[in-house]
């Protein structure tokens, strides 16, 4: 089956979220990262030693991206690739450490390199996890009424690229508390404005030097908004839609959209990998031909 997907542009897009030529470019970049890491590591045995893999390099990358896109059970992926589930798991763990560096090596530095006058939108997203056997209250989200993990992203309004990904926190952590824990306010360059939703009330008092914009809210003492306040909220919503679109692109990968079943300590890296893949698609949206 993997050989069929590799030769079909339509199946490649459905299986990985990438065009065939984008997949080939990503494979080339992953190869470069692997070679660089190989030269830096101290090997115990010579390169090429040990058992030969059943899948070639392109098939291995395809299987991992297939897992990210469709989030199939490991035993089912094993049937497709004629491997056992433990080998599939090891393959995913192996490439988990390479995808971000290959697909979007600038992800960790893109925020601090924004130019003066740039606008970013910040929001947090939650994903359902299996109910923990311990510390259930810690992972329970009052907003979602589920056990979740939350992660914050920031999107550049002009390029539509995700410029920052926070650490992931248990679902009981509020969006604004996550904002403060991420310390993103200290990383945003001077002259960059930030658009936020109504969950970030108090940001002007806590971060007076930050150029932050939040919507006006009705209160028990103020039942109606003025025309100017409504106009402000509509303009803010039209700018913030960029970060909502980013979250939508990320959640097209089922590993971030479904119930997360893997090790929680690996969740943030999987999230960053998916963000890197969506940024890769935007950066390589024009076919070289």
Describe the structure.
It is a single chain. Strands 1, 2, 3, 4, 5 and 6 form a 6-stranded mixed β-sheet that branches. Helix 5 packs across helix 6. The protein has helices spanning 2-7, 9-16, 20-40, 57-70, 74-81, 85-96, 99-103, 136-139, 175-182, 203-206, 227-250, 254-257, 267-283; strands at 119-128, 140-141, 146-156, 162-170, 193-195, 212-213. Strand 2 (140-141) and strand 3 form a beta hairpin. By secondary structure, the chain is of the alpha/beta class. The chain is globular and about 70 Å long. The chain has 2 domains: 2-103; 119-262, Nucleotidyltransferase, domain 5.
Descriptive labels:
Nucleotidyltransferase, domain 5, six-stranded mixed sheet, alpha/beta, 2 domains, 13 helices
Q: Based on DSSP secondary structure assignment, what is the total number of beta strands?
A: 6
Q: How would you characterize the largest beta sheet?
A: 6 strands, mixed
Structural class: alpha/beta
**Share in helix:** 40-55%
Enumerate how many helices there are, as a single number. 13
- Radius of gyration, whole Å: 21 Å
- Low-pLDDT stretches are none
Global outline: globular
| Percent of residues in β-strands | 5-15%
Highest CATH level, the class of the largest domain: Alpha Beta
CATH topology call of the largest domain = Nucleotidyltransferase, domain 5
Number of domains: 2
Average pLDDT number: 91
CATH architecture classification of the largest domain: 2-Layer Sandwich
